[in-house]
Amino acid sequence: MTTDLGPESLTAAVIGSFKKTPDQRLKAVLESLTHHLHEFVRDVAPSIQEWEAAIDFLTATGQKCDDVRQEFILLSDVLGVSMLVETINDEETPDATDSTVLGPFHMVQSPERVLGENISAESEGDVCVVRGRITSVTGEPVPGARIDVWQANTKGFYDVQQPGIQTIGNGRGLFTADEHGEFYFRSVIPSYYPIPTDGPVGDLLHATVRHPYRPAHIHFIVAATDYKTLTTHIFVGGSEYIDSDAVFAVKESLIKPFSTNADPEAAAALGVAAPFVEGVIEIVLHPEAPPHEDTNETVKEVVR
Ligand code: BEZ
Ligand code: FE
Which atom in ligand 1 lies closest to the alpha carbon of residue 82? Predict the structure, then answer.
């Protein structure tokens, strides 16, 4: 192959270089990547200095990553890519609860907790109860579903962001739904908070005059045998930034009022004093898709 190709034939040559790729999905991904990446470069026509700055930015993004910091996920989040992937995958399960971004802070195992336990025992703040029910798309309860939850404290920090200040596991819990598919736990009412801005993604937000805030929310991963695992949030209705989430992850269906419940019987059943603040989320799971020719593992191998 000669090296004096023009821009168009260069693109064709790179795409052609993948023609023997045995894995058809991988081949399609690489061809599309090359096509769109080259289009982008033609469109932007970067100077050599700009290309070097882009490489430096991506290098710094990688260097910012460690066991408890995932700057690439953060970059994907602020560019709306994470939410685009979620939304595309959600289209396959229109009857299930909407999904939303995983975010970069699900990086430690949540402590196993019993129903009703306080996930934020170390955190100051207004107490709330979060409860819900897991059902299938046909309305049957899903007993034994596993509900992994995590949230920031009221100062806006996850446990992993404050080593020595918060114990790992504060703000987290792994629950098992009861025989009716129901679950509940205590916590503090979350507040809005900024995503980390002390890295390249923060520089990007700064350069583009964008704020870093996420509206108040609690994360959920709900898993059950024979169902598609759901990654989602419950957003606190009326929270600041609900209309301008820095990572574009708010879906109307996931916004729930955190309202006062004065019913003494409800309070007694949940083991709290009345009146109490509660957030309620009904979670509908979609049956697991039948296994299909999965080439994702190959893609992951190559990307690794
Ligand atoms: C989070 O909610 O934990 C989060 C999501 C995206 C970027 C940063 C934080
Ligand atoms: Fe969060």
Answer: 6
